[in-house]
Amino acid sequence: MKRSLVVIAVIAAAIAGCTKPAATPSQPAPAPTQQPGTQPATPAPAQPETVPTASAPSDQVTMTGNLTFKLFETSVEGEQQKPTFEVTSPQGSLLEDNVWALKNASAVVFGKNGEETRFEAGSARFDNVNKTAELSEGVVITMGTRRIELQDVTWNNDKREAVSENEATVTDGDTQLKSKGMEFHAETQQLLLRNVVGKVSMQGGATQ
Fold first, then answer.
1. 122, part of any domain
2. pLDDT band at 25, cuts 50/70/90?
């Protein structure tokens, strides 16, 4: 069984170093001569020498452009793997090996039969080690005519599910619901809501 990650990114980095030429040591001033019958002049206090300091370079790698990260389903040796999750971002920073922090992320979860569920978030954390992606900051999930707004959601590629333990608001036409948590299962396209309150619109009317 294999897992793989395809990271499509154009990485452009320029590292420029510069050195300053060593300062030429100043020549000592000639000792003042004392005229007969006069008091020796009091020497002026020495001024401290200013040494320029360079700021320490950052160890964090940041990239901009069309960054794309993918997770795949497990497959039998030799079979072509299909993507299960894909996230794109205009800016990403490498936090550690195979872990990225992304800004203004757009993600797609692919269902078993080609269904696409779309996610938008202000930020995301893509972890290729644990095969997870955490989306936060104004998350919006679009499932056909259904729109889900929530604080955060975590995609687990092994379980093929997106889970949030926080409040979610679901809107679908005249239906408006609030829940204290949600689960979305990509294999079955099931949306599970916990502790639901709100209004459900039905063909003949509405129920509370």
1. yes
2. very low
CATH number of the domain residue 129 falls in: 2.60.450.10
The amino acid occupying position 186 is A
d(CA 188, CA 193): 15
Q: If you count them, how many residues does the chain have?
A: 208
Is 180 part of a structural domain of the chain? no
Is there a contact between 158 and 175 (Cβ–Cβ < 8 Å)? Answer: no
> How many Å apart are CA 130 and CA 127, to the nearest integer?
6
Q: Above 90 in pLDDT, residue 81?
A: no
Burial 134-162 (b: 16+ CB within 10 A, else e): ebbeebebebeeeebebebbbbebeebbb
* 146-169 tens-digit pLDDT: 999 999 999 999 999 999 999 999
Strand partners, 93: 62, 101
pLDDT above 80 (res 134): yes
Write out the residue range of the structural domain in which residue 66 sits. Answer: 59-164
Predicted TM-score (pTM) of this structure: 0.68
Instruction: Report CA dihedral (114, 116, 101, 80) to the nearest 10 degrees.
Output: 10
> Is 99 contained in some domain?
yes
Counting the structural domains of the chain, the total is: 1
The answer to the question of residue 79 being in a domain is yes
Q: Measure CA of the first residue to CA of the last residue in the chain; give whole Å.
A: 48
| CA–CA gap between residue 196 and residue 30 (Å, rounded) | 90
